[in-house]
Each structure stands twice: as C-alpha cells, then as structure tokens.
Amino acid sequence: MASISHSSVAFTGTSMASDLLRSSSNGVSGVPLKALGRARFGTRRKDFTVSAKLGKAKKHDYPWPADPDPNVKGGVLTHLSYFKPLKEKPKQVTLDFEKPLLDLQKKIVDVQRMANETGLDFSDQIISLENKYQQALKDLYTHLTPIQRVGIARHPNRPTFLDHVFNITDKFVELHGDRAGYDDPAIVTGIGTIDGRRYMFMGHQKGRNTKENVQRNFGMPTPHGYRKALRMMYYADHHGFPIITFIDTPGAYADLKSEELGQGEAIAQNLRTMFGLKVPIVSIVIGEGGSGGALAIGCANKLLMLENAVFYVASPEACAAILWKSAKAAPKAAEKLRITAGELCRLQVADGIIPEPLGGAHADPSWTSQQIKIAVVEAMDELTKMETQELLKHRMLKFRKIGGFQEGIPVDPERKVNMKKREEPVVDKTPDVELEDEVEKLKQQILKAKKSYTELPESGLNEMIEKLQNEIEHEYSEALQTMGLKDRFVMLREEFAKARTSQDELLHPALADKIAKLKDEFNQGLSEAPNYPSLMNKLDMLNEISKAKTISERSKATTLKQEINKRFKEVMDRADLKEKIEALKAEIENSETSTIGDLDDELKEKIVKVKKEIEFEMAEVLKSLGLDVAGVESKAMDLIQETHLNEDINKGIEDAIRSSDLKSKIELLKLELAKAGQTPDLESKDKIRALDQEIRQTIAEAMNSSELLEKFEKLNAEISESAESSGGLNGSLSKESPKENSFRVCWARNRAQLGCKL
After folding, report:
1. Pfam families under this entry (predicted)?
2. Among 542, 536, 543, 495, which Cα is nearest to 518's?
3. Which one of 35, 89, 214, 470 is separated from 488 by 20 to 30 angstroms, measured CA to CA?
C-alpha cells in the first residue's frame, strides 16, 4: 500500500496547518473545518508529496462586521435577529370610527392633484382643509370610547415589541431557546443597552403581516415561550441586569398541545419567580394585555401603559358572550370592564400612561418609542436607588393594594343586571295620636294668625302636608300587602313604565283593562283591610290641612288684590295726573274730531306720553308690593275680541262636522286603528293612511269657508282700528300693531283645533 510521508505534506497558503485546523470556537481566526472538506488532496508513493488546495473562505466569519458602524440603527448586531425591515410598505388600515376622516383626506388629495394639473395656487384651500382635518382628528382621538381604544390596540400596523426595542436600544442581541428543545417565536428575549446601561428585554412579538403572524402565532405564547422568559429572568437576576418586559398579546395559546405541555404550570412558575427576583422590573403594555398570558411577564415594580393600550382579564367580546349572550354587546362590556389606561391608573393597577401621537402609535412609531424610552429610564432611575429588600417589598405591596377596601364604610352596591331591585327600608309609622296632636297644634296656630291678622305658618303647613302624604302612601302600601295585591301592583307598575314612553301616548287597551280591574278590586276590599280606620283618619286630616292652606292662599290673594286696588286708586287720584288727564280731554273736545285716528300727531304724542307715565307709576306700585313686573298692558279688549273669534271659529267647526260625513270617517278610522293593534299589516296601514288624508282634506275645506274668512277679516280690521287709537304696546300710534299677530295665531290655533281633538 502506498504510504504517506508526513514530512512531505505541503499546504498552499501562508498559515501553518495547526493554525488553520484550529477550531474557530476558541476565538482564533482560521479556516472553518467545512472549508477543508472542499480541499483537493494528491498522493504519491514514497517520493510523491501530498498537496492540498484550500477553497476561498468568506472574508469575515465573525458574528459582527470588521468595521462596525456605531451609528447603525439598533446596534451593530441587529443582523443576528430574524426581524428585518419589511420589503413592502404596510397597507393603510382605516378603523370604523375613523371613516369620517377619509372624506377630508380625499378632498385634500383632490385639491392637490388639481393644483398640480392646472398649475394654479390652491395653497390657502389646502391649508384650510389640513387644519380642518387636524382639528377633526384631535376631536376624535380626545373623546375615544373604550371599544375604540381596543380597536387601536389591535391595529395591524401598530408597532411591535422589536420595533420599539431597535428604536430605543444602542445595541441589542436576541437570545433564543428554553433549553428544553424549543424556541417559541411568540416571545422574544435579548440583552440590550440604553444610554450605556444593560437591560434584559423580553416581550410578546406579533407579526406585521399575515405571514409573520402565522410564524409568531399571532403573539400567543406556548409553555416553551414562558419557560424561555423564565430562563432569561434567572439569567438577568444572576448578572444583575434590570428587566424590561413588553406586553402585547391576546392571551396564552389555548390549544390541546399547550395544555398537555403545562401551560398553566409555566405561567404560575413565572408569577412566583418574578416576585422573588432581586432586580428592578418595569413592564410596558404596548397593545393589548390579555389575562394570564400577559401577567406571566407583567409582575413588575411599575406597570406602564401606552395611551391607547388595554389590559383585561377577558376580552370585551368574550365578556359580552358570557354576560349578554352576544358578542354585539362588546362596546358595553368594554366600558364596564374598565380596561383602558386611564381607568386602570385610577384603580391603581397601572402606574403611568405613556402618550401616543394623534392617530395612534402607528401614526409615528419613532416618536412613540422615544416616549417609551423616556418613561423607562425615569422608572429605572427611581427603582435602581432601592435596596434589594425594599425593591421586593415595593413589588409585593403594588399587587397587595389592588382591590383594597376600607372597613366600616358602607357602600351601596350597584344593581346587577337581571337581579331583583333592592327594596326600600321600612319606615316606622307615626302613631295616629301623635299626628292628631301635631295637626291640632297647627290648627291653633292658624286660628291665632287669623285673629291677629298675621301671616299663616306656610312652612309648617307644607311640612305637615308632605308628612301626611307619606303616611297615607305607606297605609295604601300596607293595605295592598294585606289584601294580597302587592305583587300584581308591582308588575302592573313595571308594565306601565315600559309601555308609557311619553305622557301623550295612549295606553294599550289590555293594559288599561288590567289597571281598571285591579283598581276596582282594591276599592271593593279596602274597607275590610285592618288599617282602613287609620287610613281614613289620615285622609281626613290631610283634607283639613289642605283646605286650611287653600283658604290661606285665597285670603292672601284677596288681601293683595285689595292692597293693589287701593294703591292704584291713590295713583289715579293724584292731583298732577288728574290735571294732565283733564287737559287731554279738553284738547280732544276742542279738536272737533269724530275718531281718535283723526287727531293730529302732536296730540297723539301727548296721549302716549301720559299713558306711559300712568303705566310707569302702576309698575312702581306692583314692585313695591314685591311683585315681578314684566310689562303693564291692558288686554281686556283683546281677550274679549279673541273670545268672540274663538266662539265663531268653534261654531264653524261644529257646523262643518255636522254638515259632512267627517264624523263617520273619524269613527271608521278609530275602528281600523283598534283592529290593527300594535303591529298593523300592510293592508291596514294603507286604509288608515287613506282615511287620514280624507279627514285632513275635509278639515281644510271646512276651515277655508268664505263665511269664517269674512268674520276673521272683519275682526282683524276692528283690531287694527283699536290698536291705532290706543297707540299699541310699544307706545307708537302707527296702523300696524303687534296685537294683530296674536289674532292671526288665534286663527291658526283654532284651525288646528279639530285635528287636535282627533
């Protein structure tokens, strides 16, 4: 056999064989072993030499470039991560509540395109539209509902954990594997630096498109992911690295395989371990934090939330399906769950809110990342100053105070859905003897007031009436209870409240019949109730007190009227006013005119002036008596004329009904409405509509009759003449007066009177 001479082995190259074959794992540069597999060897017998030609190796086989650029975004080791920039720009996604903004965006684009095509200057219009868009965006995002914030937290283009990490770190190296045979891509961990300080980062990672979401399992970790996070927590605790966690998951992956692998046990291990870690922990909710899947990396000293992030024990859709049996009630569930950042800060679950730009974090991811960086650095500066025991106690107390309460302070619990209403506490009845004594004392006070001509004790009357009304209501309730009608009464009251949505709405005949039957049954059996004598006694006392109050009010009104008449007479008997009135009468007689309208303008002005002076004096009298005076007007003639006009129009309406078939049509319409009930069919609706149109047409013909129009014009002419002679309400003597408008309104009101009666 051929033998190989060791001394004759020659290698082409400048390095020694021992150097070249040395493993790259010891940090010495050399040719990888796989390169030797591609070398060509030659052999000779004895005098032959073995030659080997090495293949060309890669220029740099280090895990970092030879000349790293320190200004590379995310650090020089970012190429080690699978997370690369997207080749295609993400598609714009508009949420339902953002659709009103699309119209403004479309207008801005159209105007810009028109400006480019025509070459005209539309800068003012574009600026105006952009200002409107910004204002609309601000109004929308400052008044978001909880379910709208849920939509923003789930937005497909929202920045993910790695987006934020590469924006806020100087260097970042991703660490993989749970050391049990699996690396869950839904949880990413790694070491990074911020301003020269090392941190352990870990967080839920969602995908930026469908392909990535499938790869990342839509941000839902398996037990392997939580065990990978647990391994990195031990690593950070051993080396003293503060931990920063980013929460963005709908929840832990709930499939059969995950349960078999111990999903619950993995989460529980993380919860227990995080409370014993001796390094500061800060958690940031950047999207949605769902249940235990979020809490498994969220037991931190400080929990911060982005402005539009949500943190919940069950999603609004799941909560609505459980409580209201429909996912359509998700908006109501989102409001009741209190899952937004603001609500959770008020409940002391979250420790701070990180602002987002208008439009959400996806509108400006870099700015949002910088806000996260500022908040994290500030929180870490505070926590790193604490001693180890103080840090552990701080973390423990944060969670122990959640849901805290104070003993001894009564709290009225909110009424739950589909639960019986809380009954009002039973009020002790006032004994009849005590009530009679109080009423008798009040009567004596009323008698004394009448004899001494002093004011009656009005406050005492009102208080006693209110007290008696409450006592009578209690007696009626007790009577209903003893007669066995209380439950029926409560049910009917609830039906009545549901059916009567407005005061003008008519009751359903069936409900009205039920109420009438209960009323008759109650009235028939009331005399046999045990508390009937007490009830009648209190009703009698209430009637007496009410009569005394009515007499008191009438007496007061009579006294006030007498005082007003007395003061008015004193005003009219004043010598200066009498002299002015007599002088005016003499001037009118000397003018030898048949009507006031023929007087000259100077005399008319004198009449108006004297009238104003008298009205002013009367207003001062009313004010001195403590009465509010809005205006002093003489409306006696107006009311008489309006009454005559109403009578004539009503008579015309009745004649129109009797002389036509309107009455029969009305009865037919009532019959059709009774047949149709609450849910009329199409045929019934057509009949009712046709009858309604016929009745309206008949009313219009009756009201537009020539006789009624002539009466109206005649009265209108008389009103104009009267207004001209009296000078009108505003003190002028022009032919047009505001009083004419009241009679035009009267005509229109009476014209609609028949329709109101229907």
Report:
1. ACCA
2. 495
3. 470
Q: How far apart are CA 126 and CA 148, in angstroms?
A: 29
Lowest mean pLDDT, pick from 122-136, 284-298, 655-669: 655-669
Rounded Cα distance between 283 and 200, Å, is 12
The CA-based dihedral angle spanning residues 657, 663, 666, 671, taken in that order and rounded to the nearest 10 degrees? 170
CB-neighbour burial class of residue 238 (10 A; exposed 0-12, middle 13-18, buried 19+): exposed
* CB contact set of 688 (below 8 Å; sequence gap of 6+): 669, 672, 673, 676, 680
Comparing 101-105, 401-405, 580-584, 738-742, which segment has the lowest mean pLDDT?
Answer: 738-742
Residue 376 and residue 244 in contact, taking contact as beta carbons nearer than 8 Å:
yes
Rounded to 5°, the CA angle 211-214-220 comes to: 140
What's the rounded Cα separation, in Å, for the pair 758 and 748? 17
- For residue range 266-311, list pLDDT tens digits in order: 999 999 999 999 999 999 999 999 888 999 999 999 999 999 999 9
Instruction: Please state, in angstroms and rounded to a whole number, the distance separating the CA atoms of residues 301 and 399.
Output: 9
Which one is predicted more confidently, 374 or 562? 374
In degrees to the nearest 10, what's the CA dihedral of 100, 101, 107, 110? -120
Q: What is the spatial distance between Cα 154 and Cα 248, in angstroms, rounded to a whole number?
A: 9
Work out the pLDDT band at 69, boundaries 50, 70, 90: low
Phi-psi region of 383 (alpha: psi -120 to 50; beta: other; left: phi over 0): alpha
More confident: 632 or 342: 342
Identity at 727, one-letter amino acid code: G
Of 439, 435, 425, give the one whose Cα is nearest residue 534.
Answer: 435
Distance CA 750, CA 31 (A): 110
The pLDDT tens digits of the residues spanning 616-636 come to: 888 787 777 766 665 444 444
| Angle between helical axes of 223-239 and 263-274 (0-180°, round to 10) | 20
How far is it, in rounded angstroms, from Cα 316 to Cα 326? Answer: 11
Q: How far apart are CA 655 and CA 115, in angstroms?
A: 71
Report the range of poorest mean pLDDT among 112-126, 324-338, 726-740.
Answer: 726-740
| 0.85 surpassed by pTM | no
Query: Strands 10-11, 171-175: parallel, antiparallel or unpaired by DSSP?
Result: unpaired
CA angle 246, 97, 126 (to 5 degrees): 105
Burial-class residue 52 by CB neighbours within 10 Å (0-12, 13-18, 19+).
middle
Residue range 516-573, pLDDT digits in tens: 888 888 888 888 888 888 888 888 888 887 877 777 777 777 777 888 888 878 878 8
The residues pairing with 311 across neighbouring beta strands, listed in sequence order, are: 289
User: According to the model, what pLDDT value does residue 459 have?
Assistant: 65
* 312, 339 Cβ separation under 8 angstroms: yes
